[in-house]
Amino acid sequence: LTSCAWASPTQTDKMYAASDGTRVSLVDGDAVRVENIMVLTEAEGSPARLFGAVVNDTNDPANVTVTVDGDFSVDLEVDAKSVVRLEEEADVFGNSPAAPGATVPVTFDYQGSVTRDVPVLDGTLEPYDQFLP
Fold first, then answer.
1. Fewer CB within 10 Å: C terminus or N terminus of the chain?
2. Which structural domain range is residue 21 located in?
3. pLDDT digit string, tens, across residues 23-74
4. Confidence class of residue 20 from pLDDT cuts 50, 70 and 90?
């Protein structure tokens, strides 16, 4: 018994970020990671907020520092086997360095440093409209 995908790679075998934001692994094996990270703002120069979650699947607490565009930073303590939602922990961080549709560099510090370009979104898509500052 075969099918048309017999020789094709199985997409469900591969991890990917099925979201509007970015997924960032902070350690090998994704035991500590950031899910769906984005910056929410109405316009460049307007107040902005981080959106997403820091996930800790380890048996120990994880201290993660998130820095937006080298300017604003927030320190998060993520308990073992838990999730911290950034929109609940990190309030408005100032004015957005970029307009919706662009990206901004965000650095994550946990057992090393990882920098990724993170998308900037506005309230066009639900449910992000309710989290705009």
1. N
2. 17-131
3. 999 998 889 999 999 999 999 999 999 999 999 999 999 999 999 998 889 9
4. confident
Question: For the chain, first and last CA: distance in Å?
Answer: 55
121/3 Cα distance (integer angstroms): 40
| Domain CATH code at residue 125 | 2.60.40
Say how many domains are in the chain: 1
CB neighbourhood size of 126 (10 A): 7
Beta bridge partners of 84: 54
Q: Which residues contact 8 (CB under 8 A, 6 or more apart)?
A: none
Alpha-carbon span 48 to 121, nearest angstrom = 10
**Structure confidence at residue 5 as a pLDDT band (50, 70, 90):** low
The two three-digit tokens of residue 39, written as one number: 């910056």
Q: Percentage helix, strand, coil, to 5, in the chain?
A: 10, 45, 45
User: Mean pLDDT across the stretch 81-106?
Assistant: 91
